[in-house]
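Milestone M4 deliverable, item 7.
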Amino acid sequence: EQSKMDEERLLQDIGALVSTAMHRKKEL
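Output delivered:
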């Protein structure tokens, strides 16, 4: 159960990083 929560948190962090990178690419 605990590892499942950590996995979801990791996926959310990765998604946030990806969206941030996409925004930065558009600005450049």
